[in-house]
Amino acid sequence: MSVLDAVKARGATRLANRLLAELRQMFGFALVREIVATDPTGGIEKKHVGGQEQERERVLSEADIRALPTKLADANLLKATLHAVWVMLATLARIGELTRARRADIDLATGTWVIPADHSRTRRNIRYI
């Protein structure tokens, strides 16, 4: 809790929640591999750490978007990651929606991509043209 409390004290509540999730995953793996005897994150809930997250209102400015090609080129990303960034920017698709995309969901002839409801966070089909 002291590690999570330190992050929360900085005002980084979203990061504290993410850190809790990562710690849970790490200790879950360690339990399965018998590296640890117990999971110290077992009784910790989001409400004890960062609490309910507020939806963010981050918007890229025109200057941000114009600077993006140079920043991405300088980042030395894998080509697939670079393409994923541009697809997500163009469509506002989430990373999970993009990584679960199948060839069958994309119609090159009509220029459409349908994200099936079971791949969508909103649980509705999403159609991009």
TrEMBL record:
Q: Which UniProt keywords apply?
A: DNA integration, DNA recombination, DNA-binding
Organism, by scientific name, is Pararobbsia alpina
Task: Choose any GO biological process term that the UniProt entry carries and state it.
Answer: DNA integration
Q: Give the protein family.
A: Belongs to the 'phage' integrase family.
The record's InterPro entries line, in alphabetical order, gives: DNA_brk_join_enz (IPR011010), Integrase-like_cat_sf (IPR013762), Integrase_recombinase_N (IPR010998), Phage_Integrase (IPR050808)
Q: Which GO terms describe its molecular function?
A: DNA binding
Instruction: Name the chain's protein.
Output: Prophage integrase IntA
The protein's matches in PANTHER family, at most eight in alphabetical order, are given as:
PROPHAGE INTEGRASE, PROPHAGE INTEGRASE INTS-RELATED
